[in-house]
Design goal:
The longest helix has 32 residues. It is built from 15 helices and no strands. It starts with 22 loop residues before the first helix and ends with a helix. The radius of gyration is 20 Å and the shape is globular. The chain is mostly helical.
């Protein structure tokens, strides 16, 4: 099937085989099929940014996922829209992840220092493998556990989208993981600042804790912004976690490649968009990219990510979550507690 649109490959919606058209004509037909869904995604993205502007405690990425899910569950995600929303959830997400690399640099890792890097690496490692172990105990499908582990240990829905290329799961696995990281990341915005006093964290320690434990970049900013003096540290620590997305995806792809039977389709060790992500980090690290270009790329990246998450949100169905049952919710909440506890222990033990 072609891009979830319900048509056979090589056949346009007009009934004429694409092979009988010129490449320009075929591309035009494909873009006409994508257009309704992309227009809907653009409208929902604009609403997401508008809501976030009016209510700063609600990040645009969170709103985008909710809007996509509402469209799917209220029967608004019609067949005519699916080719466009599928394109947003796959292609636009990849472009957004590549541009995310321009926000990172090796200098940021150096500024974090060995102790800070140890907190980040330890938190990611324990959360990633611990969540998958919990998934086995709860009898969650391995692909779903892997996606949940990636989302909670790295950077939320965008990490889930990156890992789904090699996870071998289905739409339900992806939708469940995104729903869980969105739910827990949203709760973190309100809960973590309330815990700062009882846990005895100064602004710098709180920023480290938030950066090492909150899932999505936008949710990290929203959480850290609620405590004066915590935001800069939280962003540096969070983006250091994001750097680990590439080796994590590459490692999983390599393991699956080695275990796949000879002659079957094997995932690439590094999907091309992850290569682009690494190239963008290297480029940003040179210091050659003008500040204005980096600022513009950040805006484009945010728009692409929000649009992609609208598309990914359309894969979240309440009926699917009901079928998943309480076990997936327990896995998500357990992973959330795990990442928060490990990050807090790291902050306390190292004085990062």
């Amino acid at each position: 099937m072609d891009e979830q649109a319900g048509t056979m490959p090589g056949v346009a919606t007009t009934g004429a085989p694409v092979s009988s058209m010129s490449s320009d004509e075929g591309a035009a037909v494909l873009w006409r099929r994508r257009a309704p869904g992309l227009v809907a995604v653009a409208g929902a993205s604009a609403v997401a940014f508008g809501v976030a502007r009016v209510a700063p405690s609600l990040d645009a990425t969170t709103v985008a996922v909710v809007l996509g899910a509402l469209g799917a569950n209220l029967g608004l995600h019609r067949a005519a829209l699916r080719t466009g929303t599928s394109y947003a959830s796959r292609r636009l997400l990849r472009f957004g992840i590549v541009l995310l690399g321009l926000q990172l640099s090796l200098g940021q890792l150096a500024d974090l220092g060995a102790v800070g890097l140890a907190v980040v690496a330890g938190t990611v490692t324990v959360t990633f493998f611990g969540t998958q172990l919990l998934g086995r105990v709860l009898r969650i499908p391995p692909a779903r556990s892997l996606l949940v582990a990636t989302g909670f240990s790295i950077c939320g829905a965008s990490a889930v989208g990156a890992m789904k290329e090699v996870a071998g799961g289905d739409t339900e696995d992806t939708g469940t993981a995104i729903a869980l990281v969105t739910l827990c990341g949203t709760l973190a915005i309100f809960l973590l600042p309330a815990l700062r006093g009882p846990l005895g964290l100064d602004p710098t320690d709180f920023g480290t804790w938030v950066g090492a434990s909150v899932h999505d970049v936008g949710q990290t900013v929203a959480t850290a912004s609620r405590v004066d003096g915590a935001l800069t540290t939280a962003i540096v620590v969070k983006l250091s976690r994001v750097v680990l997305l590439a080796p994590l995806v590459a490692g999983v792809a390599l393991v699956r490649r080695r275990s796949a039977p000879v002659g079957t389709g094997r995932p690439a060790v590094l999907p091309m968009f992850v290569v682009g992500f690494l190239v963008a980090i290297a480029l940003a690290s040179t210091g050659w990219v003008p500040a204005g270009v980096l600022a513009g790329a950040k805006v484009v990246q945010q728009v692409l990510l929000v649009a992609a998450l609208v598309g990914l949100g359309t894969g979240i169905h309440l009926a699917m979550l009901r079928r998943t049952g309480a076990r997936a919710l327990v896995l998500g909440l357990s992973s959330w507690v795990l990442v928060g506890a490990v990050a807090y222990a790291g902050v306390r033990l190292t004085g990062a």
